[in-house]
Specification:
Layout: E1 20-21, H1 27-38, H2 56-69, E2 73-74, H3 80-83, E3 85-88, E4 93-101, E5 105-118, E6 121-130
Antiparallel strand pairs: 1-3, 2-4, 3-4, 4-5, 5-6
């Protein structure tokens, strides 16, 4: 079950059996990623610490999905964490972050990010944006 944004601190838990709330430590990074997308920087040229470079193919896929959705993407509000979730996949977390648009609020679009736990901290690899 996905938790509420009122949770004091949500930790990254390696649980393959349950979908969990996005950990608190990841939220600022995920917000920065989406902020870049709002500015149409799909390759993250501005660079976000801890985030792997985005390939040209992945950036093109993200741009295509957002443009074909025909709504204006906005930065993530706090309510995002009420419905976004992650699950441990044995070697990484698979996180799905609900994206928001100007007209709809929470949209059908999600950002999929794979997150690994390394000696130097969490590492984020943007996989895609899509409508599940």
């Amino acid at each position: 079950m996905v938790g509420r944004n009122s949770d004091p601190e949500v930790l990254a838990v390696k649980d393959e059996s349950h979908e969990l709330t996005i950990p608190s430590a990841w939220r600022p990074v995920l917000c920065e990623i989406v902020r870049a997308f709002v500015q149409r920087d799909y390759r993250l040229n501005a660079s976000v610490p801890g985030v792997a470079p985005v390939s040209a193919d992945t950036a093109a896929q993200i741009e295509k999905y957002i443009e074909h959705y025909r709504e204006t993407l906005v930065e993530l509000p706090e309510e995002t964490w009420d419905s976004s979730a992650c699950i441990w996949m044995g070697g990484h977390w698979d996180a799905l972050v609900d994206l928001w648009t100007q007209a709809e609020g929470r949209s059908d679009l999600v950002l999929q990010v794979f997150i690994t736990d390394t000696k130097s901290g969490f590492h984020f690899d943007i996989h895609m944006v899509y409508v599940p």
